[in-house]
Design a protein that fits this description.
- The chain has 73 residues and is mainly alpha-helical.
- It contains three helices and two strands.
- It has a two-stranded parallel sheet.
- The model has no long low-confidence stretch (mean pLDDT 90).
Length: 73
C-alpha cells in the first residue's frame, strides 16, 4: 500500500502543480478548479490512497462499484 500511496501522492502533487501553473498563465484562481479522481476499475486500496493524498471528489462509471466503494469510505 505504501508504494501505491506514494505513486498516487506524487501524481496528485504533479497535477495540482500543473493546475496552478496553468491558472497562473491564464489569470485564473486555482482554487476555482476541482480535481476529480476517477475510481473506475480501481481497488478500494487505490481509492483509500487517493483520499489520503487529498482527493475528495471521485467519479465512478458503474453503480455497483460506486455502492461498494461508498460503503467503505
Amino acid at each position: 500500500m505504501e508504494n501505491t500511496y506514494n505513486i498516487i501522492k506524487e501524481n496528485v502533487e504533479r497535477i495540482r502543480y500543473e493546475i496552478g501553473d496553468t491558472c497562473a498563465k491564464i489569470g485564473r484562481n486555482p482554487d476555482e478548479v476541482l480535481l476529480m479522481g476517477v475510481s473506475k476499475t480501481k481497488t478500494a486500496q487505490d481509492v483509500e490512497a487517493a483520499i489520503k493524498a487529498g482527493i475528495t471528489l471521485f467519479g465512478e462509471n458503474r453503480v455497483q462499484e460506486l455502492q461498494q466503494k461508498a460503503e467503505m469510505f
